[in-house]
Amino acid sequence: MIRHRVLIVVVACSVAWTFATLSAASMGAEAPPATDGRFEHPRLYFSSDDAAAVAHRRQAAGGGAIWQNLLASADWCREQPPRTEWIPTLAEDPQYENLYDRFYAAMHDAAIVETLAFASALHFEDDDPYFAAAKSQLLAAADVWRHESENPPDAGKAYAVLRVVKSIAVGYDLLYDRLSESERAQVRDSIVPVLRAYFQFFQDPSVAGAGYNKHHGSVDAAPLGVAALALLGDVPEADAWLQMATEKHTGYLLTEALTPSGTNDQSSNFWASTLMYRIQFMDALRRVTGRDLFAEFPRSLPGQMALAAVAGPHPARFDANEPNRSVLFGPNYGQLNYWSPVLVFLAREQRRPIYQYLAAWDETLGTVQRTRFVTPTRKEELLFGYGPYAFLWYDPDIPAEVEPDLPRAFLFPEPAVNEAYLRESFEPGAIAVAMLKGSLVVHAGGRATFVDLTSASDVNKPPEPVEELLVSDDGRRAAIRCVGPKAQDVSEQWVELHRPGVLKVERHTSNPVRWWQMDQPRQEANSFVWPDGVRLQVEVGEIAQVDVHGYVESPVHFGGMKFADPCPHEYQTVEVKPIDGVVKLFIRRP
């Protein structure tokens, strides 16, 4: 999520760059068009030449389901009134409400503009019921967000403004042939001054360089590049904007924005969003110019985090947007419905059935993601509009299946990350375990059965790494050994996964062990039992307290602002006192 005054990652424009005509090296990628100086629209993610491939995708079993989800979201989007009022930046914003009003408004409009434009353009020769709404939302967004050209750029604004400007540029590309020249000019006159202002801002040495936040840098640079690609041939300055965006990626973002182990050093959820924006830019760059950064940077799409952290299916229910429902240590907005479009692209680009398989666990694949984040006064709703990309990137020739000999134990050892994962298998309902700086989450039967009540998952207050974190796996038995965290008076922890179906947790501490668990299991003596037979048993320790309303999960900003959460969750909590300094738990699934 956005944080106030986060510095962006930028590189000053310094070396002349010319388009290279490279073939698409990755299997499954469409060949790029010729770049003889003539750029037709749409061109970013498909063209009229792709009509047959799109029709095939719509008729395929998996692609058809994604298409229907996309259309359902487009139906919802066309019922939303276009925004008419720009939200100015307030000088005094002690709880960051204005910051989030503007951020959520930008994401809301971006999702609606792109979803409707894609739904309209992808109909090709079919009857298109979405064009009128798509044009209306595009032109309204252009009129509202043109005011950002008069709003001095800064790092906090860039995180939101460039994303909505990119979406307006995508809508321009998709609807270009059906817009009048005056309507095209209306869009260009809106976004070109904004892009011009941020291009100048990114050349300021005080904000240029690789030392700033890599996640924000990725989310800023990619939209700049996508917008530039949409405007090539229409706006002379677009060449320089594209050069800057490309140099940001090749100069440091593709090598430094993620850790060597393949995740983000603040949150695994930033792994997903970094890849989402990276892919949107690099996929469009390859199609429009032929330059293939995927081939130039073969390690730029690490997928190990998804193999580790995707724990179960994501239901098509709004109330399933809850932390740890389908992604371990994922926040309520960062579950599989947030990650799945990235997995679809990884499946296509790397020809990996396992990513297709995990993406298919998301019943909402293709939809607009509506979150539980709503600002308290203006009621601005945070949306993510990645559904159309899932449809475009879906390759029906990639089977959705578990590959043989996949790893089932994972370690992300960088001190800032300090995470370990174990999984029983890749079957739905299997046991999956995550440890983050000594804090533990266990998934079994498709829900979280143990979530430590600690602050280890708060990216705004990252704890120190533990003294030692080791992982082993011989196939039948996998284990995590953890020394610490000392701040919670934990000397040692052992987590042992015995395949199939048994997990042992041993914690040496003088403090009570407290956790919350999903779906309100019934208590039977020293055990908690779920309807499907999953059982958590306290083997050593004294159950001191059980509270069915013990943990209320509802978004609150670290500055104190309470969001207008339409669906807060209550969970059962358990407190167990150690006996002789030890707590032992067994978790079994039938």
TrEMBL record:
Signal sequence residues: 1-24
Superkingdom, taxonomy of origin: Bacteria
Domain Heparinase II N-terminal: 88-295
Keyword Signal: yes
Claim: Signal is one of the keywords in the record: yes
Gene3D superfamilies referenced in this protein's UniProt entry, alphabetically: Chondroitin AC/alginate lyase
Entry keyword set: Signal
Protein name: Heparinase II N-terminal domain-containing protein
